[in-house]
Every structure is written in structure tokens, then in C-alpha cells.
Amino acid sequence: MVRLGFIIGFIALLGALLSGLAAYRVHDQELALDRIALARAIDVHASLVQDRLTERELLARVASGLFRAPSVIKPNMLEPLRSAIYAFKTDFVVAGWIARLKPNELAAAQAAIAGAGFPNPKIRTFDDKPIDPATVTQPIDVLMDLEPRSDETKALPGRSYDQDPVLSAMLTRARVEKRSVASDPVPLLRGNGPVGVVVAAPVIPEGATEPAGFITFSYELASLMLTNDDLSLFSVALKDPRKDGSELVANDQGVVSTRLALADGPAPSATRTLSFGGRDWQFSYYAKTNSARRAEQTAVIVAAIGFAITAMVCGLFGYVAYNNLRLSREIQVRIGFERRLTAVIDELNHRVKNILAVIQSIVTRTLRHGSDIDVARELLIGRIHAMSNVVSLLSESQWQGVKLKGLFEARAIPHADRIAVSGPDIAVSARAAQSLSLLFFELASHSDEGLSLVGKHPHITANWTVSGEEGAEIFHFRWEEFNTSEATRRPDSDFGLILLDRVAPEALGGAAKRYFTDASYIYELTAPMETVVDMTERDRTEKFSQPVRPVH
After folding, report:
1. Keyword Cell inner membrane on this protein (predicted)?
2. Which listed CATH number (3.40.605.10, 3.30.70.890, 3.30.565.10, 3.10.450.50) goes with 368-545?
């Protein structure tokens, strides 16, 4: 359960981190996309506006170029240009011809204006106050002709713009710089008319240094600014060149109004500077939507969805994992028991086969042809008893080994009370225990033959030692029967000789020798300690002997 809780907690933490990261990325992406879309829309708008302004300035230059040697007082001066003007652009408010009249040309100019059919041919100021020709000493700029002609525009010819606060400065600059010039924003046609700008292009006759007059075009600001509808991403404002801190705004109906740019108000998202009429105009773009707030709202939605999905995944995973874990535990326990049972059966079969093979060898060798049936029966019973005894000891230790001294304390060893045993009490492996048990029985069972020939009992010692460095220890076993000679000791049987000289040494991976001295019989066995103990067999036996526990 702790591990499951840790996994669910890790998934929840990972889901929360991924949700937060996704929300962060979505916030940045939304913000970047909005900014890119706004910047691109602004660039497109500014480019279109600049193209329109350039076209209209070009129109004034082309129109002025058509006047090669005009007569300033000729009536209907724009008559030859009407078709050309309308072919270029039709969105101007008024196109006019402003002649630069000398004092002696004023009377002829009035006659020309009257001859052109305008209702008020008198030369007058921009606010319709009459001008006395006798008071004029310098050339003045008078509107002589215009297009289109309507009831509202027919009253304009005859006005002089020398004293006009806006157009006078524009005409003076155009005359000095000898190029097209745009005016400040000004009401067109009347004082409360639509706000626009006037572009004046000087008309300079061939060989002259001063312009004879000016071709003018007036445009509403709304059309020049290309104002957008409610679906646009931004609103456009034109910085008012007449007053610092004020802006001109045109709505989608073309109505231009003035507003103050407050210091604590929203800053423009971008500004663009465009050129028109020999001057720079600054456009301010204000985003209609708050990109940061929109990105935050989108990020919150993404994070909430991520957290909800994480919670659902954690809950579902916890439910499924808990049921699977419970089922897995039951299956593992059953599989473990089945494996353990299989291992025990396999081990039992292996050991039973070994024991039966040993017993078969014991019986075959003991009951060989020509042997004494009484002696053979006694040896056969003793050998099987020794085998049974060691199997009992191994069963008690779950086949994980037998203490070496315990083999001598068993009842299966003849004359065990006369054997002096010494040596470290090591636990030998099951294979070594079986071989040593039979070995001890064979040695002890043949040590009693000389009792009737020698006046005292033989004395037997069995000792073993372990020597050598760690990892390369050697097991030394020594059996010595005192008061025994080759003449008095009962000869070993064929099975005993095979066991002493070949079977036991080979089972332990060592070597053995036996010999008589003047007063004793000696048997010595030397083997590597690793085969006597045999940890691999003990580990293998321990695995299937341990109880099976479920994996958490």
C-alpha cells in the first residue's frame, strides 16, 4: 500500500507539473500569437495607409504637371483635368485651383469667376469678408475653380487663403519648397464640416521660378486612416500636430473626434510613422482586447483541464492498481506454493533416487556371491541403518546440513562409546553427510575383530581440522585405531574398500589413504572445504524450504 500510495502521489505530482507546464506554455503561446497577429495586422494597416497616401500625393503632382503654361485668370481652369482627376481617384472632397494673383489681376479674376458661373465672384478673405483691391500690394492666393461643383462648393471660389490659419502656412511652404505639401487637420467646406487634410502641389510654368498657383486636393481623415469596424483587432488614432497630447480618432461612420491622451491611460500597442505631403504623421494603434488577460484565462482553463484529467487518472489508476495488487498477491502466493511444492517434490525425487542408488549399491556389494550370509546380513542392516540415521538428521535440518559430531553420536555407529571425537563442530552438506556416515560405519564396524586376540579393547580416535587461507580451506580427517594390527583387524569388505578408497574421496572432491603402523590402523581423508560444506546446495535447499511470502 505504501508503494501504491507513492506511485499515485508521483503520478499526481507529475500530472500537476505537466498541467502547470502546459498552462505556462499555452499562456506564452497565446500571448505570443496575439502579439504576432496584432503586429502583423498593424503592419498591414500601416502599409495600406502609406500606399493610399502616396497615391494621393502622386495625384496632386500629376495634376500639377498637366499645367504647363496656365493662365491664372482663365475661367474653368480645371475643365481639361476633370476626366483625368476622376480617373485617378474619386474619394477626394474637393479639388481646387488656387491662383497666385497679382494686384492688377484681381479685376480680371473676378470677371473670370463670374464667367465660370459661380454665384459670388468677389475677391474676399477666407471668412467671406470683401477685399478692397486698392489695399492689395502683394500677390495673393485666390481659389479660382473647384471640382465637384455643388450648392455647397459653388460659394467657395473667390476666397483668398493668405490669412487662413491653416492653409496659408501650407501654401507658403509649398511655394518655398516647390513640392507638394499637406496641411494640418482642418474642417472641410465649412466650420463644422468633416475633418480632413488638404494637399497642395505648386504649378510652376516653364522658365519660371515662382509658382503660378496650386492644385489642391482635400481628403477626409477617416478615409485616409482606413478606420476599421468593430471586428478589427485595434483602433487607430492620429496624433494631432496642432496640439501636443491630443489625438484624432475616426469611427467606422467616418466621424472624426479629438481626445486627450491621458498620462495614466492605456499606452498604444504600437506606433507607426507615415509620410504624406512632405511631413511625418504618427499613427497610434490600441489593441481592443487585453492579450495578457486572455492568455491568463486560457492558461487557467488548460490547467484546470489538466488537473481534472490528473485526478481522474490517479483515481482510476489507484482503483485498478489496488484490485490488481490484491489479485496479484493471491496469485503470487498460490504460484509460490506451487513452485515450492514442485521444488520439494523434485528435490525429494532427486534425493530418493540417490538414496535408492546407494542402497542398491550397498545391497549388491554386501550380498555378493560367496559371502557369509550372517556377516552380510549384519553389515547390510548396519549400512542401511546408517543411511536411515543420516536421512533423519538431514530431515530435521530441512536438508541444510548436519553437524559433523552428530554423526558420531548416532546409534548407527558401532562402538560409538569407544571413539574419541575432536574437531570443530562444522555443518557438512547433505551429500558429504551421507558419504561420511557410511564411511564412519565402515571404519567402526571393522574395528572389533582383534578383541579375542588382543587382551584389551582397541582405542579409537577420530579428529578433523580445517587449515589454509580463507576461500581455500582444506578439510583434514584422521581415523586411528590403537592396539590394532593387520593380523588382528578384520579385513575390509569389497564395498568398504570401494567406499574408503574411491566413493568417499570422490564425493568430497579429495583424496584418502589407509595404512598400518606398529600399533595402530590409520585412515586419512583430505578434501576442499568448499565441497564439504557446499554452500550452493545449502542455498538451493534453503530457497524451497522457506515459506512463501506475497510481494508488496
Report:
1. no
2. 3.30.565.10
